Predict the 3D structure of the following.
Amino acid sequence: MPRKKILIIDDDIDLVEALRITLEKTGYDVIDAQDGEKGFEKAKMENPDMILLDVMMGTQDEGFHVAYNIRNEPEITDTPIIMLTAVGQETGFGFDKEKDADFLPVNEFIEKPVDPDVLIDKIRYVLGQ
C-alpha cells in the first residue's frame, strides 16, 4: 500500500518539524509550505492525500482563504483538510464542525498545542484508515 502524502501549511517551522517527525514515524510522507500562497501552489502541484492547515499565518484568517481556494480548485477540491488553530486561545472563539460547516470548508479542527495522538487519530479517521 503506498504511503499517504500529507501537506503541512504553517508558518511555525518548529511546529512543522515536530509534526513531520510524528507523521513520518507513523508512516506518512510529509511536504510543507510556510505560507498560504505557497501551500496552495504545492497542493495543486503535489496533490496530497490530506492537508494540515494553520489558520493564523500572515494574517489572522489566512488559513480560511487557503481552504476556500482549495475547495474552489477542481483538481484538489475533495482533498481533506484538518485545520490547526490557536484561535480559541487567542480569541476565545470556538469552532463547531456541524454548526459552522457552511462557512468552514474543512473536515476537522485541532486546537494548538497539537496532541500527537489526537492528530494521528483524526488523520486516520479522515483518511478512512
